[in-house]
Amino acid sequence: MTHLVQAIALGLLIGGVYALMASGLTLIFGVMRIINIAQGAFLILVAMLTWWLWHETGIDPILLSVVTTPLMFGFGWVAYRLLLSRIRGSSASMSVLLTFGFALVIEGVLNITAGNKFKSATPSYFEESFRVGAISLPKAQVFGFLAAMAVLAALYFVLTRTWTGRAIRAATQNPSGAALVGVGATGTAALAFAIGSATTGVGGSILSVLYPFFPASHYDWISRLLGIVVLGGMGSLPGALVGAGILGLAETLTATYGSLNWSTLVFYIVIMVVLLIRPQGLFGAKLREDTV
Amino acid sequence: MSRLRALPRAHLIAGLCLVALLLYPVVNPWQPYPQGVMLLAFLLAIQASSWNIVSGYAGYISLGHSMFLGLGSYTVGVLAVRFGVNPLWVAPLGGVTAVIIAVLIGSVVLRTRGHAFVIITIAMLLAAQIFAVNLKGITQGSDGITLELPFWDRDFQNIPFYYVYLILLVLTVLFSAWIRRTKFGTGLVAIREDEGKAASIGVNTTRFKIVAYAASSFFIGMAGGVYAYYLTFINPVGSFAILGSVTIVLATLTGGRGTLYGPVIGAFIVQVVSEAATVYGGGSQSRVLLFGLALMVVVLFLPKGLLPTIEAWWRRRHPEKVEYTDQAGALNRAPATTTERVRAELAAVNAEDAIAPGEILLDVRGVSKRFGGLTAVDNAGLTVRKGTITALIGPNGSGKTTLFNLISGGMAADSGEIWFDGRRIDGMRPWRRGHLGLGRTYQVTRLFKEMTVQENVVAPLPDSRWRTMFSDAVGGHEAARARELLDIVGLGRFANQPAGALSYGQQKLVELAQVLMLEPKLILLDEPAGGVNPSLLGQLTEVIRELNRSGVTFLIVEHNIPLVLDLCDPVVVFSHGAPIAEGPPERIRTDPLVLDAYLGDDWRPAEDGTADEGAGESDRAETATREAVQ
């Protein structure tokens, strides 16, 4: 019983972090119909940067997201303006290929600059845990979860309570309508891409503490995040949250009761089962496909 | 295929290259290194050509295609070690495994449109790797499998592999060429261009996509089996490498996605460049960076790929002469015998029906469709009797086109039933409705713009038989029939032009010919007169009348009221999502309800005669057309 509660608690903590990481991806897809395959590489890039800064200065890695988040915001903005805006209007598959290429470039650069070795940031609380009754929650997991929730709440606030957020949501729902009321598509898209990238600032910093990583880890991460987004329904923020929770739970439960080796696979099996029953994902609305 | 006809030398050049490659080991037998590079280029070309079937023709990008290479390798490796058979004998089983897995994944992911496929392909590649690591009993886990050394004398080096791969490559290219020639191939391109439209002309998009995915996996799986023997050692990380997928994508993109020879050319370029980079550019560490950069450069600056770019340049240098567009005279050009034959065919299709003329062919019962708060179609009922030309008129936004979409299956109704030809169709997928003899055109034409006019007309499938799916689309009966139909609408001369080059009115006619290919019993025409010039319009109505005489029933949405009153009987008037009046044209034009809701005062029988009636109406028709086009 304790095992089960422990596993569920850990699963939810991990799910929260996954939710943050997937939120950027789903936001970018929602606004631009771009599947940013480079999102995983962004995460590893940030993790690497965080690790280096922590290693050099000793500042807490999760706190360092204060630095990495604005950096990634700018990075995303520039990446959109320089690369993705060039292929606006061409088919969606081109953006997949472009961001895939971008991911490889980031991986290649990291390979050369940081080396092809596993790294992990280990702050002082790394091996400590909070004890709640019989269960113990690793401090790093808890801090990561809290940071993720704080950022998600901020993101939610921005999207629902500010003009910028409303503009982004308007552009998600009806680009031409948004343009009519003065929401410029390119500017909004760049902004959404920048915000989506900025979420990896926090996500990557958390990652550097919770998981060992090396340049090629981004494949694991992107397929995990894409899985969450497909599960939740592409473009849906609540979907990403719920999908991340489900997959976090599925993963920890398998690791607890089955074997660690299979936990990643369970992830993919859950996705396939959901797609079999509900092809549009849990929260994905079937869009009005006008045949006019 | 039109591309090949445009450049008839392509096959010749390909043949010469093949002869040179066949002779190369004989001429220069003691050079293992270049042979090794060539051999790997063949392997990449096999993969790229195969990938091209699903991601080039059908446009569904797979980023995990190297999974099939690994599946083939493991199938063959496991069988060879277990049962002591020579890997070359069981290599085809590698292809079989690949096809089985592709069908399984495809039937889950390819049922819907859109982006889930690309995502799942990456995930499945990584999942396959996890399987290979963890199923230790079968795969020996991370330790990998060591196979026996090739049975031939060391003096032969890798020359046998060279020929095996060359033969596999030739087979793959022939297979790809054959697919592109069939209606299956045309359907795949149709899916890439406009999936919803493809479904409406009888293309079973789900089946087509799954078959394409499976077809794109077979030769890779088989090549993977041979690859295991060539390497004599396989392990999970090497066999299911994502970088392998990257090279496949890069090769096809570089050469030209969707072309026959592009993937092969691209594979040779990528293999040679990558080899050079490994030798001169600091080893395989930099390969990821190099491939990533190359992929970005190709997407940004050479999105169509080398072959199509060169071809476009060639066409600009040597433009083809296009004949003068003689629309008015066009319709009279069809040889009388052709017209007669097609009419007889259509008459036969419609005569074998259980439903007699005058009985109800289409029955819409209490159908509703809501978009959020807006009820576009509200508990509407509509019957179309066999043999009639029924009109559906009404103000913009009254739900006419939505009703069309519900009938043709582009959208699902929220409630109500739709019956066609004695069968309930509202739960059927669009292509099933097409196979039953329900065809439609669109308010704004939806031709497949990158196909030729003839390919557009060949694309529809009148039934769901596999034989029809794999029938020849370039020569033979289907193509001849498409030519006949084009002659009937007077556009035979444009058969080999890209559909996007035609004028709007001509595109409407091509769309009608496309529907005729379905051997339809009922044709839904959505504003056939919109954007069509007056002289062509007269001919269009003549074609509709003639087809109707052959037994084809029509349901027409149209704002050109004089045309409707002239051509159609009965006329149904729609307003606010439901019919408000129905009857012969004479009664409709005087019905006070209709005058209030739609026709307006210009049509009210007035004391000052009917002189300005036409003028007022043509204004309105024009406005409607403009709105429709927007």
From TrEMBL, chain A:
Residue ranges of the TM segments: 35-54, 61-80, 92-110, 140-159, 190-213, 225-247, 259-277
Q: Which Pfam families match?
A: BPD_transp_2
Give an example GO molecular function: transmembrane transporter activity
Q: Which GO terms describe its cellular component?
A: plasma membrane
> Where does the source fall among the domains of life?
Bacteria
Query: How is it placed in the membrane, per its record?
Result: Multi-pass membrane protein
What are the recorded Gene Ontology BP terms?
A: amino acid transport
Output the CDD domains linked to this UniProt entry.
Answer: TM_PBP1_LivH_like (cd06582)
Q: Which UniProt keywords apply?
A: Amino-acid transport, Cell membrane, Membrane, Transmembrane, Transmembrane helix, Transport
Q: Where in the cell is it found?
A: Cell membrane
Checking InterPro entries in the record gives: ABC_transp_permease, BCAA_transport_permease
Q: Which family does it belong to?
A: Belongs to the binding-protein-dependent transport system permease family. LivHM subfamily.
Protein's recorded name = Branched-chain amino acid ABC transporter permease
